[in-house]
Amino acid sequence: MRTYNWAILGPGHIAHKFAQDLAFVPNTKLHAVASRSLAKAQEFAATYGAPHAVGSYDELLAVPGIDAVYIATPHSEHHAHALLCLRAGLPVLCEKAFTQNAAQAQEVIAAARQGGVFLMEAFWTRFFPAIYKALELVQAGTIGEVMHLVADFGFRTEFKPEGRLFNPALAGGSLLDIGVYPLFISQLFLGQPADVRAVATPTGTGVDQNCAIALAYASGATATLFSTIAAVTENRCVLYGTKGHLQLLGRFHAPHGVLLKLYDQDQPQEIPCEKQGLGYHYEAAHVQECLAQGLLESPLLPLSFSLEQMQLLDTIRTQIGLRYPGE
Length: 327
Fold this sequence. Notes:
The chain is an alpha/beta fold and about 325 residues long.
C-alpha cells in the first residue's frame, strides 16, 4: 500500500489532536505544516516528525508530495484557505464550520467540482463506530419511528473580546463553534427540517453566548438543540422513538457506545463501540479511502450535506440577528 502524505494548514489546538491521531492510520504520515509563523510551523513539524514547515499558507502549495490538506484555521478563514488549496489541485479536509455562510460554501464546492479535486468537511463525529451503530439501529426500526431528538453541547470559557470564540471578525459565537454538533446530529438522523425556530443570548461583542434551536420535520418528529460557551452541559444526545430510545454514550460528538432502552424490556442494553485515540483518525482514514477510489467527495458526508447545514446555520443566524463583518 502507498503512504499518504498529509499537510496541516493552521497548526492550532485542534490540529495537534489531528496530528496525534494520524498515528492510528496505517501508511500515513504528516508531511508538511503551514503557519503564518515559520517558528510555529517548525515547532509543530518537529513535534510530529514532518519534514516540511513553511511560514505562509501560499508556500504550502510549493511543497512536493502532498496528498491531502487538513485546514484547521478559524471559521472565518476556511473559505479562502480551501479555495487556495483546491485551485492548486490539493485535496481538502476542511474543519467545521465548513465556511462562514452558505454563499461561501457554494463557492468552495463549485471550485472543487470545477477542478475535479476532493473536498470534505471535517465532521469527525460522522465516522465514529458508535455513530455507524446508532444509524444502523435507527434505520432498522429498532426504536420505532423517531419522534424527538435532543442534543446539547456547552463549555464555559472566560470572556475575551479579541479571542476566537468572541470575535465577530473570526466568526465567533457558540453556534458556529459547537452548535454545529447538535445541528449535525439532528440532520444526520432526521434530515432537513420543515420549520426552524431559534433564540440566542448575545455576548458583549455581539456573537451568541447561548443558542437554543427548535426544529420540526415533515415526518412529525421534532428536535431541541442547545449550545453555550457560558456553562458546562452534559454533551448528550438522545433519540426518542415509538418503541424505545437510544442514547449516544459519552460526549455525543465523540461517542464510545450506544445505550438502547426498549419499552417492552425491563433493562437497557449497553452496546460498546471501538474508540481509539481521540477519534480524528477515523475521518482521515475515510478521506484516504475516498482518494484511493478516485472519489471527489465522500458518500457518507457528501458536499450537499455540508451545504444544507450551512444554509440552516444562515437561517438560524438570521433569526438570532447574528451577522459577521462583510456579510
